[in-house]
Amino acid sequence: MKRVTGIGGIFFKANDPSKLHEWYEKHLGLKREPGNYTMLRWREADDPEKIGKTVWTLFKKDSKYFDPSQSSFMINYRVENLDALLDLLREEGVEIDPKRENTEYGRFAWIMDPEGNRIELWEPPTAA
């Protein structure tokens, strides 16, 4: 079973997300879309007709979304089978947040690494 198949998103905290996003847009070309995020599009290596997406987003410095992590960043990893991976990680003793989200964008779960960094796992919808 594949565990991680790619990076679904890169999220980090900023003192002034809007102003910092303007800097990234001006200097690095990360164009902001409605909803205050940037979408990086790419092609699947084994199916070039299929377009993949990686989200790049800034959060307010006081955001609780990364809690209980004290880190200012969080990476979202794409996975193929969220339930099977969580079962495997549980057997391996990985700390797993009981919270789950099922949305039109896919299914989400969270784990913690040994240094207290929160990691988001994302199973895209089958059409993604």
Describe this structure in words.
This protein is α/β, with parallel strands linked by helices. The chain is built from two helices and seven strands. The protein has helices at residues 17-28, 82-91, and strands at residues 6-14, 37-44, 47-60, 73-78, 95-103, 106-112, 118-123. The chain has a seven-stranded mixed β-sheet. A hairpin with a 2-residue loop joins strand 2 and strand 3. The longest helix has 12 residues, at 17-28. 12% of the residues are buried. The mean pLDDT is 92.
Fraction in helix: 10-25%
If you average the pLDDT, what whole number results? 92
**Weakly predicted, low-confidence segments:** none
Strand order of the largest sheet: 2-3-1-4-7-6-5
**Quaternary structure type:** single chain
Roughly what fraction of the amino acids lie in strands? over 45%
Q: Based on DSSP secondary structure assignment, what is the total number of beta strands?
A: 7
Q: Termini, distance in Å?
A: 19 Å
* Secondary structure category: alpha/beta
**Count of helix runs:** 2
Shape: globular
Radius of gyration: 15 Å
| Order of helix and strand elements from N to C terminus | EHEEEHEEE
Largest sheet: 7 strands, mixed
Pick out its properties.
2 helices, alpha/beta, 128 residues, 7 strands, seven-stranded mixed β-sheet
Write the layout of secondary structure elements.
Elements: E1 6-14, H1 17-28, E2 37-44, E3 47-60, E4 73-78, H2 82-91, E5 95-103, E6 106-112, E7 118-123
Parallel strand pairs: 1-3, 4-7
Antiparallel strand pairs: 1-4, 2-3, 5-6, 6-7
